[in-house]
């Protein structure tokens, strides 16, 4: 527990020291169904939280605990989905970047600098940016964005689960689990599946 806390405390407030630095991240890039979701967050430079970290390092309970904290403490935040049809049209990388751009466009304040989780991004209007590998475990604003992207997407998947419960999206959230692939093989695909993805190993046998 001490080691985990030590890692969390090393998260940094800003990369650029810009008062309105925005962190952005996405969730759902590797899923077979559902949107790719991105969030953008500007935190006060004095913001602190002892739990906040990369969403993948936290339990669902902690992510849901952090969601309203980030929403209430952020100077401003935005969340955006890019849905399956567009993912299939422009590819998942472009869709992920578009979701991040869209989430940034929803901020109430224009950022002075953007930090991005990962190593791929496209300039957003005239705002300088920096991509940071594993940025969601290094910078608080990216970690906060990862929390919002993940929780908003999970809640969306739990909603569409009610329409197609046989895929158990409330549990697997659209990721390529054995259970999800077995359901695709048995029931076929839905309007929420990404048709450009390899939904089954024997894709050529799948009637799309």
Automatic annotation (TrEMBL):
Obligatory cofactor(s): Mn(2+); Mg(2+)
GO CC term (a single one) = ribonuclease H2 complex
**Highest taxon of the lineage:** Bacteria
Recite the UniProt cofactor note for this protein: Manganese or magnesium. Binds 1 divalent metal ion per monomer in the absence of substrate. May bind a second metal ion after substrate binding.
InterPro entries named in the record: RNase_HII, RNase_HII/HIII, RNase_HII/HIII_dom, RNaseH-like_sf, RNaseH_sf
Q: Where is the RNase H type-2 domain?
A: 19-208
Q: Which keywords does the record carry?
A: Cytoplasm, Endonuclease, Hydrolase, Manganese, Metal-binding, Nuclease
| PROSITE patterns given in the database record | RNASE_H_2
Q: Tell me, what is one Gene Ontology molecular-function annotation carried by this entry?
A: RNA-DNA hybrid ribonuclease activity
Reactions the enzyme catalyzes: Endonucleolytic cleavage to 5'-phosphomonoester
Residues binding a divalent metal cation: 25-26, 117
Residues of the signal sequence?
A: none
Q: What is its EC number?
A: 3.1.26.4
Localization terms from the record: Cytoplasm
What are the BP-aspect GO terms?
Answer: DNA replication, removal of RNA primer; mismatch repair
Which family does the similarity line name?
Belongs to the RNase HII family.
Q: Which HAMAP family is this protein grouped with?
A: RNase_HII_B (MF_00052_B)
Q: What does this protein do?
A: Endonuclease that specifically degrades the RNA of RNA-DNA hybrids.
What is the protein name stated in its UniProt record?
Ribonuclease HII
Native organism is Winogradskyella jejuensis
């Amino acid at each position: 527990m001490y080691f985990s806390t030590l890692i969390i405390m090393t998260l940094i407030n800003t990369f650029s020291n810009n008062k309105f630095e925005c962190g952005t991240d996405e969730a759902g890039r590797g899923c077979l169904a559902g949107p790719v979701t991105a969030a953008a967050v500007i935190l006060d430079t004095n913001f602190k939280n002892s739990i906040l970290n990369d969403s993948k390092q936290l339990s669902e309970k902690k992510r849901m605990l952090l969601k309203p904290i980030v929403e209430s403490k952020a100077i401003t935040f935005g969340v955006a989905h890019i849905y399956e049809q567009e993912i299939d049209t422009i590819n998942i990388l472009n869709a992920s970047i578009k979701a991040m751009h869209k989430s940034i466009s929803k901020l109430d304040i224009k950022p002075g600098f953007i930090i991005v989780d990962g190593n791929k991004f496209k300039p957003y209007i005239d705002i300088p940016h920096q991509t940071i590998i594993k940025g969601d475990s290094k910078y608080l604003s990216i970690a906060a964005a990862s929390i919002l992207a993940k929780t908003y997407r999970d809640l969306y998947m739990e909603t569409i689960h009610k329409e197609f419960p046989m895929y158990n999206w409330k549990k697997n959230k659209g990721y390529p689990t054995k259970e999800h692939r077995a359901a695709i093989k048995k029931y076929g695909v839905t309007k929420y599946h990404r048709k450009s993805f390899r939904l089954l190993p024997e894709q050529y046998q799948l009637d799309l």
